[in-house]
Amino acid sequence: MRFTSKKGLLLLMGLIGIFLTACGNLQNADLSGNTSSNTASSKSAAYQITGTTDGSQYSALLSDGKYKVSSSRGLTVDQNSNNFNVASFEDGLTTISKQQFSPDKYAFQEGQYIARTTANSWLKRKSSSNADGLNPEDNKQTDSNKRAPIYLQQILEQDYLVHSGSTYKLDGMAIGLGMNSTDYYQKVQYGATFKTTISRADQEKQGKEMAQKILARLRQKKELANVTIVFGLYEQAANDSLVGGTYFAQAVSKSGTTLSDWTSLKQENGVLPVVNNEKAINGGDSDSFNNFKSKIQSFFPNLSGVTAQVHYENDSLKGMKIKITTQFFGENEIRSFTQYVGTAASRYLPANVPIEITISSVGGMQAFLNRDSGEKDFYSHVFSSY
Amino acid sequence: MRFTSKKGLLLLMGLIGIFLTACGNLQNADLSGNTSSNTASSKSAAYQITGTTDGSQYSALLSDGKYKVSSSRGLTVDQNSNNFNVASFEDGLTTISKQQFSPDKYAFQEGQYIARTTANSWLKRKSSSNADGLNPEDNKQTDSNKRAPIYLQQILEQDYLVHSGSTYKLDGMAIGLGMNSTDYYQKVQYGATFKTTISRADQEKQGKEMAQKILARLRQKKELANVTIVFGLYEQAANDSLVGGTYFAQAVSKSGTTLSDWTSLKQENGVLPVVNNEKAINGGDSDSFNNFKSKIQSFFPNLSGVTAQVHYENDSLKGMKIKITTQFFGENEIRSFTQYVGTAASRYLPANVPIEITISSVGGMQAFLNRDSGEKDFYSHVFSSY
């Protein structure tokens, strides 16, 4: 958890003014835009990709001698925000994109077509001075159930390109919309924080309408008239959640301005061990984790914590991220522990599921183990120095 | 470097009172000992090892239901100490041990035969109240060249066991002696710090005499009368060094109390890029690193630092640990960068050498790449969350 809170602090300290978010949460949302008139498909300058792919990850395009970051990449910068939302919003959109744009064929580029000023105006409330705002007009109510909440918290564009002659040409795009399940607001500036809870049904209704509007706007750009555009609707986890949110709907537009055929996605994130008599998403997986946990704690008493994030799709476990916090200092103690964790993980944790295990002390990461999808054994590495 | 300084802080805060060191540097060195009368070879209780080995790493013995930490593990706890010394002192002794005690045959256990009180009295100066002190008597001089310095800074025992029937039996031991190249001292309590420089010749002379004394003391114990004991002499790096020290001599005693046949070890550690017109240990390796560095910096401008620790034995490069510090935040930016680093590392960095590359932001480690000895491709992993 330390990792997260520090990352949060960093975002607060360093990034205000760089990233975009709904204006309900960002005081100074009117950032000067660099209008990023993209030319990826019109230049024949030196293109390069970051490396070859085995088909499971994208290669990224390096153009004009640089890796281009997205001008519209949206992060939540308010103090209470949940950084897990930031990571899983982006990772999840990439995962959705892989179904449509195979990494074997497509190279990745961060979104270059929605300019920063544009995304910013979309994220703000609709008003007389901001006709393009996707969030509803302020109805001047402050009561939790009467006010018009900020539905859309963040927006993300990803570009997918195909090799064409000596250059790369835009052929696909993915747009993620981060929908608030809880909208945090103040009644007076610097005042107490209140919440408006937004139902899944409302998130879905609002998200689909917004996606429809965005599609129509994007199709007006000549370069985007005929590219395949994938939309994903993401439910933001609450600020106090120990996992990020999940995608709950997706739709594909091959051409035209009508977005129909939405597909529901059944994804769930959870934390193990469960506490306060809560129920695990899957009791068997929870038992497996508890066996693993008690086994390693019985032999190595100097452990401060063993927790896991679990991710489910259509009720099956799709991955575990386990964090082990230690009070170890000796190199051989870490090596021995890492070896033992590998043995215990193979024996007790669910098979055929990707599992990442990090072993950290307060000084940083000491070791890690990983088993990718389809692999039988854990790869392990202990960090060391000369 | 952050990692290190925080680890240092931690050691200061949490560990004073646990570990042992020469009394010249530890104020409160008289720790109550747990006398650790070891019984690893006499009990038939449940033994278990931490996992199977591929022959490159030891399996560690778990006995009495626990991983046993060494009672005499020696760490330097004074404020200015160099934590790289702590890690490489321990790792280096394990490496020396592998030549004598093959990981295929031997299991590892942290030192259990030199009790904490014993090691502590050995590390202190010889005096009327401490006849066993290995460091010289205080000659009451405070002048840098006239005083008797603390030669021995830390001591480490490692045990190596063979499977015997239903149990494990001690069959080998390794003893590391950490010899100061610079002894830091105060003329008055809480006063300014002064230094006495100790030549390699003096370190070697003193270290060999101390090893001889230790051998004679160990052979008096019945359980140690006939085990093979390996000694390693380690030169501590200065407190301001960005790498740890190296082992410079080793000797093996199969039996008896005479230690002869010392073998010199030619090891060197360095840092890249070299600064202040210093000369790299090997110009070609330095050029390779600089090519790699400038290549990744040209495509990814948001890098704060790219540095490497290099380790040489008999003038050949034996390994590189590269630390890259970034200002990245997006998941895909990290993934793309990691892929590109793998491409550039394969192309520009020296072949056939183990290389570890960590990619960190101030929030912690974001990704890492590793190529072990004999491998062609880099393994890479990007840390993520749900």
Automatic annotation (TrEMBL), chains A, B:
Statement: the UniProt record of this protein carries the keyword Signal: yes
Keywords: Signal
UniProt keyword Signal, yes or no: yes
UniProt biased composition (Basic and acidic residues): 137-146
Signal sequence, start to end: 1-24
InterPro entries documented for this protein: CamS
Domain of life: Bacteria
Cited Pfam families: CamS
Annotated stretches, region: Disordered: 126-146
Protein name per the record: CamS family sex pheromone protein
